[in-house]
Amino acid sequence: MSPIHDQGYRRYAGGRARGRAWLVIVNAGVRTMLRDRKFVALLAASWIQFLVRSVQFYFAANFSQAAIIAPNAETFRDFFDKQDIFVFIVTVTLGAALIAQDRRVNALQIYLSKPLTRAEYIFGKLGILMVFLLFITWLPAMLLLVVQVVFAGNFAFVQANAYLFPAITLYALLEVAMVSTSMLALSSLSTNSRFVGILYTGLIFFSQAVAGVLRFITASTSFSWVAFGNNLSQVGDVIFRVPLRYTTPWPVSLLVILALIGLSGVILERRVRGVEIVA
């Protein structure tokens, strides 16, 4: 038998998931979180509003006395507003540690070794958070449309409000994209996930406080764009075709959202770096 040191070098003959490596990160991250009972309980709690709305739709469809609670576009807009608390909790609970924990244990050097690229790593981490956020926003909202059709026994509501399908999808993607990229960017700035969660919470409440002070001073909501959440609300009202709640032009709010996503991308590009390991 030949000594081990005499064995010649042989190239790796297996396959590599080029361009799909980020899916491996998403799959592993989702599976890990689904093994956490507390997190699963949180996800289950986020669907309580779906159950309540379903009961509302049932009574509205089967009892004429309940016509006052019949669903409309504002119903679905309000659904997203009430889900914000769960979006916040899931974002802080899951998102704060996505990159911070890897930086704490110096795992970026392993992740970013070949053949995994920096972009694949970022999209993989981003995908984990987005999957769960869409699960508690987009999915139940779309299922509510199905529930309405089933209880009503016809497609009258859907035909009259066909725009709700793209509206729900567009708003959910916009909200999830802004929240996920912002949290991921903050997570890349520290090795302490608790600090990241506190920082994210502080920025949200501080921006709301500043917007409140400006509203009090100017007796106007023209500066509502200062608060991150207000911009989503303003653009959401436009998407769902309901009355706007602020006087800020909605293109300004949309620009702030896109700028925040862009800034988060720049931070991630600069902060997510590692040492490539030569294969």
Reconstruct the topology from this structure.
Layout (H helix, E strand, L loop, with lengths): L20 H14 L2 H9 L2 H15 L10 H23 L4 H5 L3 H4 L6 H19 L1 H15 L3 H5 L3 H24 L5 H26 L9 H12 L10 H22 L8
Q: How would you sum up this structure in a few lines?
A:
The chain has 279 residues and is an all-alpha fold.
Main features:
about 280 residues, mainly alpha, 13 helices, about 70% helix
Could you explain the architecture of this structure?
Helix content is 69%, strand content 0%. It is mainly α and 279 residues long. It has one domain (17-271). α10 (164-187) runs antiparallel to α12 (228-239). The model has no long low-confidence stretch (mean pLDDT 89).
SSE succession:
HHHHHHHHHHHHH
From the helix content, strand content and strand pairing, which structural class follows? mainly alpha
Give the overall shape: globular
Radius of gyration: 23 Å
What would you call the quaternary organization?
A: single chain
